[in-house]
Amino acid sequence: MPTLEGLADADLLALRLAAQVLRHKAALAGRPLVARWFEDLGRAVDSAMARHGVGFVVGEAPTLALPREADESDRAMLVDHLRLVATNPALSPALRAACAELRETVSK
């Protein structure tokens, strides 16, 4: 998994918001495994922010991985949703690069 530690606090906040929105979209689409992945991403962001001294986290950061029972439709939705963030020109280059790395990781 790409590190979130190199992201600025503002980028982490933007990524947490993106994870919340994309989790909701996946849940509405009936893809609970994808929704759970984005929920885990939000928790990973919270952990990174806590290490930056912004906020706090109870528990350990999750490992970002789709469960074995995820099918190709789950993987395709996850990759597509990450593409939305990775190609958004309004976001910082560092955040777009981190999401592109995440996308590459889950598309394998």
Shape: globular
- Helical fraction equals 55-70%
DSSP, total strands: 0
What's the end-to-end separation, in Å? 12 Å
What is the overall number of helices? Answer: 4
Question: In the residues, how many domains can be counted?
Answer: 1
Largest sheet: none
Mean pLDDT: 88
Decide which structural class fits the backbone. Answer: mainly alpha
Rg over CA atoms = 13 Å
Which consecutive residue ranges, at least 5 long each, have pLDDT under 50? none
- Report the order of strands and helices: HHHH
Q: Can you describe this structure in just a few lines?
A:
The chain is mainly alpha-helical and 108 residues long.
Structure write-up:
The chain is mainly alpha-helical and 108 residues long. It has helices at residues 9-28, 32-51, 72-86, 93-106. The protein has one domain. It is globular and about 35 Å long. The model has no long low-confidence stretch (mean pLDDT 88). The chain has four helices and no strands.
Explain the layout of strands and helices.
Blueprint (H helix, E strand, L loop, with lengths): L8 H20 L3 H20 L20 H15 L6 H14 L2
Helix pairs in contact: 1-2, 1-3, 3-4
